[in-house]
Amino acid sequence: MKYIFEIFRDTNTILVYLSDHGEEVYDYRDSRGRVASRINANLLKYQYSIPFMIWYSDKYKKTHKRKVGLINESKSLPFISDLLPNVMFGIGNVKTKYYHIKHDLTSGYYVPCKRIVNDGYDYDSFFRTNINRK
Questions:
Q1: How far apart (Å, rounded) are the C-alpha atoms in residues 18 and 32?
Q2: Which domain holds residue 61?
Q3: Is 20 a domain residue?
Q4: Domain count along the chain
Q5: Is residue 80 part of a domain?
Q6: Does the pLDDT of residue 134 top 60, yes or no?
Q7: Stated pTM of the model
Q8: What phi and psi, each to the nearest 5 degrees, are found at residue 114?
Q9: For the chain, which terminal residue's Cβ has fewer other Cβ atoms within 10 angstroms, N or C?
Q10: Residues 22, 46: contact at Cβ < 8 Å?
Q11: Are 44 and 78 in contact (CB under 8 A)?
Q12: Do residues 86 and 108 touch, judged by C-beta distance below 8 A?
């Protein structure tokens, strides 16, 4: 069986992948799954951070140089999966009243929003104010 990237390598393709949730599997304690406990930096990191990836073929890169540049510039920006439809609308040039350019990570006009998790914890301020200890 071919890897999905190999299937699309020679086409004008962009692929977007993200997981629906994080998973803690013995990352920093004897625990597996999504086990609630006292909130700390490790719990937030391993249970709420998810893989998110945008891959594009060489042909897409040549055809959509501006979009690829914007994608590359957005690599380290904070993002929440709730905004994914805006990314998809932007990548696909979909015209709809539901598209908001400031919520499109790949638009060049993206404005990061607060990332609130677990009934009110501000994800980003928690990491700025707490030491991540193992």
A1: 20
A2: 4-129
A3: yes
A4: 1
A5: yes
A6: no
A7: 0.82
A8: -65, 140
A9: N
A10: yes
A11: no
A12: no
